């Protein structure tokens, strides 16, 4: 070991997007021969940090050091020459070319200026056997499984860079056996002295393979720790940042206040998405949904709303058996759904605020009972006032509004349809403090007015404050339903983290 | 009706049309001369209306398709099919109304077929409509058995060459179609829904809009418009030419829609402006012809004009203009 114990180091990295601080003085060190897990919820700054370490972004402050020497990484190609290679979640190769071509693209062995295919395939065969793959290098990459493609991508990255390997959610689309196979490869690389950064949402995998862990939250460094010293609960707590709230215990809303049953899901589920679950929802109550990203929270919401309809189980609405095969069925039963990804699934960016607010109501009315402009303005005006939507004009495109105002507009869109059951997926994510408070206030108000709601959120304090029950999702399964007194974020964190082989307290 | 403020009339399309017409007038001083003869108007400007009608009719249907982020390449071929249907039926002795009705149904069926491929089988519109673009001409040739079918039916001929209140029938049909489709789309919620699925289909599904029905409708309408254009063109030349009827007109129709300010990325659309776009294209064609330039110039000049019009519409050119609009809308919000 020379002057630095780190192969790759970030010192005091700052990155600012517009007025938003994405990374606030992050220190991060990577040793040779370790697997270092990088954890954090969406928006914590993981991908920004990775993009800086691979040269895709330039930091606004701080320095990146390779082997103790400060370097400026202009782009990912440049990072490669410093020995830093990256493998992304979606395989970034050419599926219609051969395995060997994918391995050597851009630096093919040549003879008389032409690509020497025989040499290339021979080299590829040797390289692949080191990864335990015996396949024809001349075969098309796309004909192999995603796991094999992933390993080929790793082989390519290691061959090109050879010092640091960054794996950005490499297991997201793999099944259990494939994950194991990938882990064998990663373990082998680790033993050969490679430094590996591993990003994933699956805690099991972190504990299976990582040596150390760094947790980011809201652009801040929370902790870098040896994994041996941590339990699952510790890690979840670090990610969600609930240390303070662990002291006080908050009671959930009393359940006795509402007895009238609105919805009964029994054995409800969708194959390959969410395992069957039972859930009863009363009028005037909020059900909180907790769980890490990728635990099946959003999938649960989409099944309930008919966006990905259930293929098993039954639903009773006010006692009558009903089937929801399409979102229009759900809307017909007075459901509403504010999706998590506001931009991709929520707003109609080029359409006006007014049109965005009235569209679900108009969808319910159909093609020919059209709201005229004055009626639209009246409805949009009413909600923009009661929800305090700050827009210069209701006729301006909604994409020009801030995230918080967009969210309030989407909430208004559903409130305009007079829903009985509202599903909110991360309603307060990525919005400013004022809008945040307004949305929480609205949730409380609607509950008191007798509306049933299902709120998915990572803000556990908040969920506890307005929910009467909390269901916990893990591995696409509803694993717990918490109710009664003494529910605090600590207990929820434990339920999220609980693992069969860990003691349940 | 709402008042149309002057600012809304000063849009790039109408300015461009005025510019092209003025240019024509400079090159050919008699351009605006209109004479009354045999109970109808004659003149270059009337000629623009008459000759521009088929593309304008196509543009009415194409606007809806493009607003959903799609495109319909098959309209030229559908024109040929429907012209062939109408012509062979009147030649076979059917009365003209039945022949026209059958041709319209054929066009609607072609459009619904496209809609089926796009909405139900989820095939990309450019590929889905390419099928009929290629196959349509073959079908038309099968119907006409390879020859140009000529006819003398006075009712059918009237559709192409007759006049109404002195204006050419083709132009009257185009205007009537434009007005009725615009009213249908704007007075119902269809226009809003079409824009919604064009802007964000995922969000539209979550907001409870059934995009399949809507796509079927939009492609069906495009097929219907192509049928009308096909009948007009066949009636004009008193014959159905399976090889040349509507040839390349799909491209003019797409161009008219784009000149009309509807983005190929879907979303906001304007049917009247697409019709203005068709008139701009025709005014250029006519202008080059009457001003005595060799027709070879036509395509080059047209390309130059189109680049100019699209430049005027580009977000960069509109930037100073838009800033002013934002300040005025803020002021009105107070």
Summarize the structure.
Chain A is α/β, with parallel strands linked by helices and 505 residues long.
Task: Tell me the Rg of chain A in angstroms.
Answer: 26 Å
Shape of chain A: elongated
Note the beta-strand portion of chain B.
under 5%
Return the average pLDDT of chain A rounded to an integer.
Answer: 84
Architecture of chain B, according to CATH? Orthogonal Bundle
Q: Main sheet of chain A: which strands, in order across?
A: 6-9-10-3-11-12
Q: Indicate the percent of residues in helices of chain A.
A: 25-40%
Class of secondary structure makeup of chain A = alpha/beta
> Rg of chain B from C-alpha positions?
20 Å
The biggest chain-chain interface is:
A-B, 35 and 26 residues
Stretches of chain A where pLDDT is under 50 for at least 5 consecutive residues are: 244-250, 501-505
Oligomeric form: heterodimer
Mean pLDDT of chain B: 86
Number of domains of chain B: 1
**CATH fold label of chain B:** ABC transporter involved in vitamin B12 uptake, BtuC
